[in-house]
């Protein structure tokens, strides 16, 4: 499938980015650099020029009551909400409509390229480029963790421009299906709807989509991509340096795609189609870490959502003591800690769930 963006990258922009792309072996980046920049500026426009007036119009009291830190977070969540809906819709469209992608064998899944897949990579890279800038400018608000996440996510999605495992880009982007519900959960807290029926229903959708998209589907997709990368290394060979040796000979059967196949148009020649060890290790290692974090975030998410509601479904008020001040810490002025969800971020490229603890001091009753 061809790139759906309405116009190609200007030649001057392609020439400007080519030295950078050649140095890092990002072969298809010059074809999509205008899309990366377009989406980065698009999200900045939403953050700076659309979210503030729209939020004042729709939620005048709640938005006006926010302090500067919370207002920055609010506008970022608006961008995150829009981005997750946009990128998930595009990923589903690519999965369902890109016939060339659907016909890929394991070689195509590792080295193949389609214009629609490159466009989706550019959408994701543009968002994380914007996210990196915002996390840098507002470092005191988002901290080192989210800044490092933005760096890592941008690097991971940039690898797709080699091209490398472009086939799995739409699959892992579907992690974002849980993100709209995570953003809604955050907005409901700011709108004084904590513990409401609406937040309960949203919490059910949040935990369900998070479990199936990130834990179940994510683990299955990771197994598939690991299998394809391992097969590429076993059949084609392994590259320990940075460039393929001249006249390299590889084992296995000849490629299933012809030399003029559009899918393999940007793949290295068959004799040089070796998987760099650093690339396989970086991609697979990052994937394992993100999957492990998903399980941790899911457990914390369950705790955080339950803390919003009364028993038996929730844990609100549990351990704080009864009406007579009974319970641990009651009547002694001791501090308890309650987990609170501070901001949604997604994995795989992509934001995660940041959970913080709020201190609760119980007062002595006379």
Automatic annotation (TrEMBL):
<protein>
    <recommendedName>
        <fullName>TLC domain-containing protein</fullName>
    </recommendedName>
</protein>
<keyword id="KW-0812">Transmembrane</keyword>
<feature type="transmembrane region" description="Helical">
    <location>
        <begin position="76"/>
        <end position="96"/>
    </location>
</feature>
<feature type="region of interest" description="Disordered">
    <location>
        <begin position="316"/>
        <end position="349"/>
    </location>
</feature>
<feature type="transmembrane region" description="Helical">
    <location>
        <begin position="137"/>
        <end position="161"/>
    </location>
</feature>
<dbReference type="InterPro" id="IPR050846">
    <property type="entry name" value="TLCD"/>
</dbReference>
<feature type="transmembrane region" description="Helical">
    <location>
        <begin position="111"/>
        <end position="130"/>
    </location>
</feature>
<feature type="transmembrane region" description="Helical">
    <location>
        <begin position="200"/>
        <end position="220"/>
    </location>
</feature>
<keyword id="KW-0472">Membrane</keyword>
<feature type="transmembrane region" description="Helical">
    <location>
        <begin position="277"/>
        <end position="298"/>
    </location>
</feature>
<feature type="transmembrane region" description="Helical">
    <location>
        <begin position="167"/>
        <end position="188"/>
    </location>
</feature>
<dbReference type="InterPro" id="IPR006634">
    <property type="entry name" value="TLC-dom"/>
</dbReference>
<keyword id="KW-1133">Transmembrane helix</keyword>
<feature type="compositionally biased region" description="Basic and acidic residues">
    <location>
        <begin position="323"/>
        <end position="337"/>
    </location>
</feature>
<feature type="domain" description="TLC">
    <location>
        <begin position="69"/>
        <end position="310"/>
    </location>
</feature>
<dbReference type="Pfam" id="PF03798">
    <property type="entry name" value="TRAM_LAG1_CLN8"/>
</dbReference>
């Amino acid at each position: 499938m061809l790139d759906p963006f309405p116009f190609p990258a200007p030649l001057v922009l392609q020439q400007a980015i080519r030295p950078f792309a050649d140095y890092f072996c990002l072969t298809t980046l010059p074809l999509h650099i205008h899309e990366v920049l377009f989406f980065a500026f698009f999200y900045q426009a939403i953050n700076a020029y659309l979210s503030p007036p729209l939020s004042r119009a729709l939620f005048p009291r709640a938005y006006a009551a926010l302090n500067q830190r919370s207002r920055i977070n609010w506008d970022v969540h608006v961008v995150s909400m829009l981005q997750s809906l946009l990128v998930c819709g595009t990923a589903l469209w690519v999965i369902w409509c890109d016939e060339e992608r659907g016909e890929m064998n394991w070689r195509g899944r590792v080295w193949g390229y389609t214009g629609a897949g490159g466009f989706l990579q550019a959408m994701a890279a543009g968002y994380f480029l914007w996210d990196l800038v915002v996390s840098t400018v507002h470092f005191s608000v988002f901290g080192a963790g989210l800044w490092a996440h933005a760096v890592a996510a941008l690097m991971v999605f940039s690898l797709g421009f080699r091209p490398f495992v472009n086939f799995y880009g739409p699959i892992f982007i579907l992690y974002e299906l849980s993100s709209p519900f995570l953003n809604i959960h955050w907005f409901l807290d700011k709108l004084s709807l904590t513990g409401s029926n609406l937040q309960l229903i949203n919490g059910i959708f949040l935990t369900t989509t998070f479990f199936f998209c990130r834990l179940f589907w994510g683990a299955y997709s990771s197994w598939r991509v690991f299998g394809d990368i391992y097969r590429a290394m076993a059949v084609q060979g392994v590259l320990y340096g940075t460039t393929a040796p001249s006249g390299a000979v590889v084992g296995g059967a000849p490629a299933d795609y012809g030399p003029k196949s559009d899918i393999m148009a940007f793949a290295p020649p068959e004799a040089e189609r070796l998987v760099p060890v650093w690339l396989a290790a970086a991609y697979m290692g990052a994937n394992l870490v993100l999957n492990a974090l998903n399980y941790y975030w899911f457990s914390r998410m369950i705790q955080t959502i339950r803390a919003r509601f009364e028993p038996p479904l929730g844990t609100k008020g549990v351990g704080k003591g009864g009406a007579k001040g009974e319970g641990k810490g009651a009547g002694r002025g001791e501090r308890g800690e309650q987990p609170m969800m501070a901001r949604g971020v997604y994995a795989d490229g992509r934001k995660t769930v940041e959970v913080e603890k709020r201190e609760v001091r119980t007062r002595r009753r006379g």
